């Protein structure tokens, strides 16, 4: 088995980018993202949007397909390359930028009505200082009255139950097992990929460190950095937490 452990998230995502869309079924992921965007449009108006940690572009494409002028950023150059390819495949004009969350203000020179940070991107910020800095950057990149949508795993539940398995998916040739190891105060996120097309099957295990933010920690940071009007969607049985906040005028 090949095992790679690295706290540099860009290395981790570059390493898993080749089979990422196979693991999550990009078309299914895109349809789900379009449903989320449609629900957001019912709640408030937005014409320009930023997708932070865009990965291979499911939410970025969903926003663009909904007529929103969209920018996607990701710290992984391989993920950005895959997102650009997906955008071209769907005939969409999307601005993709290779940037981490910490460098947003240096790399983005426009403002938005909506910023989304989905798919458990936020926990890659390993300190409270980094979280506050990222949220402050989001406030500065939002137009007055703009909205920030944050989605991450429901760590309230995960920490309480010490839940290890996040998900198991299988395609024709590959099996993907996502699981946690707990090393307080952090969580090591692991991806075990099994290639069943070879004889014997081959394995690859990669991991990266995350900070498991609870909803109270995120909401406290939002208040500190100038956001108001929280709306949280979470239940004890929910696998993820979504928090919608508005920039204070």
Description:
The structure is a single chain. The protein has 9 helices and 12 strands. The chain is α/β, with parallel strands linked by helices and 249 residues long. The protein has a domain at 16-153 and 214-247: 3-Layer(aba) Sandwich (Rossmann fold). It has a 7-stranded mixed sheet, sandwiched between helices. It has a 5-stranded mixed sheet with strand order 1-10-9-8-7. The relative contact order is 0.15.
Q: Note the overall shape.
A: globular
Helix/strand order, N-terminal first: EHHHEHEHEHEHEHEEEEHEE
How much helix is in the residues? 25-40%
- What is the total tally of β strands? 12
* Overall average residue pLDDT: 93
**CATH architecture name of one domain:** 3-Layer(aba) Sandwich
CATH superfamily of one domain: Vaccinia Virus protein VP39
CATH fold naming of one domain:
Rossmann fold
Task: Round the Cα radius of gyration to an integer and report it.
Answer: 18 Å
Class derived from helix and strand content: alpha/beta
In the CATH scheme, the class of one domain would be Alpha Beta
Secondary structure tally, helices = 9
What is the topology, as strand order, of the major beta sheet? 4-3-2-5-6-12-11
Low-confidence stretches: 1-6
Give the biggest sheet. Answer: 7 strands, mixed
């Amino acid at each position: 088995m090949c095992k790679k452990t690295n706290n540099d998230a860009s290395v981790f995502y570059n390493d898993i980018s080749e089979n990422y869309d196979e693991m999550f079924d990009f078309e299914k992921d895109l349809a789900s993202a379009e449903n989320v965007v449609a629900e957001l449009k019912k709640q408030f108006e937005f014409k320009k949007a930023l997708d932070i940690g865009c990965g291979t572009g499911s939410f970025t494409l969903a926003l663009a397909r909904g007529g929103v002028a969209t920018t996607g950023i990701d710290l992984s150059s391989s993920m950005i390359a895959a997102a650009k390819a997906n955008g071209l495949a769907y005939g969409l004009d999307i601005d993709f930028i290779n940037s981490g969350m910490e460098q947003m203000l240096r790399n983005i020179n426009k403002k938005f009505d909506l910023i989304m940070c989905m798919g458990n991107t936020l926990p890659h910020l390993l300190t409270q200082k980094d979280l506050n800095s990222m949220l402050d950057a989001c406030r500065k990149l939002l137009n007055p009255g703009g909205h920030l949508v944050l989605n991450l795993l429901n760590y309230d539940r995960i920490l309480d139950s010490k839940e290890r398995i996040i998900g198991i998916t299988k395609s024709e040739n590959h099996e993907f097992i996502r699981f946690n190891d707990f090393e307080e105060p952090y969580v090591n996120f692991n991806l075990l990929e099994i290639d069943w097309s070879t004889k014997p099957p081959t394995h690859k295990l990669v991991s990266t460190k995350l900070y498991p933010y609870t909803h109270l920690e995120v909401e406290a940071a939002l208040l500190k950095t100038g956001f108001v009007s929280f709306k949280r969607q979470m239940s004890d049985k929910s696998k993820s937490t979504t928090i919608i906040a508005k920039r204070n005028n």
